[in-house]
Amino acid sequence: MVYPAIQPCCNSHDQCYDTCLADKRQCDQQFQQCMLRACSDSYSTSSRPPGSGNPLAGCIIQAQAGYSLLIMTCGPFESAQRNACMCGQGSPEVSGGPGQNATWAPLTSPSQPVV
């Protein structure tokens, strides 16, 4: 079962990854907090009809599993950054980003040369 309450968190996380020079750790932490808050807000015990099981626990398990998968891989983040940024020549100040010794800028920036 996919918990619809967390879908807006997924959308926000995608937008964060799609922002040039985003901080992966910050995107992922915001995603985790958003999902846990959405689970709590949407599936609290006071809002559940009698006999409906425990959707709060299931939602939290799904949120934690999704977060755990994200922190174990960089592929989706790197791909989103390649699509969100363009690479220009040279400066190592932005080390650790895609390409390591490159300057990254939003694709919409007219001041960056395309190489």
Account of the 3D structure:
With about 120 residues, this protein is mainly alpha-helical. About 50% of the residues lie in helices and about 5% in strands. It contains four helices and two strands; from the N terminus they run ααααββ. The chain has helices spanning about 5-15, 25-40, 55-70, 75-85, and strands at about 85-90, 105. The protein has a two-stranded antiparallel sheet with strand order 1-2. Helix 2 (about 25-40) packs antiparallel against helix 3 (about 55-70). It is elongated and about 55 Å long.
Summarize the structure.
This protein has 115 residues and is mostly helical.
The low-confidence parts are 89-102, 109-115
Major β-sheet strand ordering: 1-2
- Count the beta strands: 2
What share of the residues lie within helices? 40-55%
Strand content: 5-15%
Average pLDDT: 78
Overall shape: it is elongated
Label this structure with key terms.
mainly alpha; two-stranded antiparallel ribbon; 4 helices; 2 strands; elongated
What is the topological layout?
Blueprint: H1 7-17, H2 24-42, H3 55-71, H4 75-84, E1 85-88, E2 103-106
Antiparallel strand pairs: 1-2
Helix pairs in contact: 1-2, 2-3
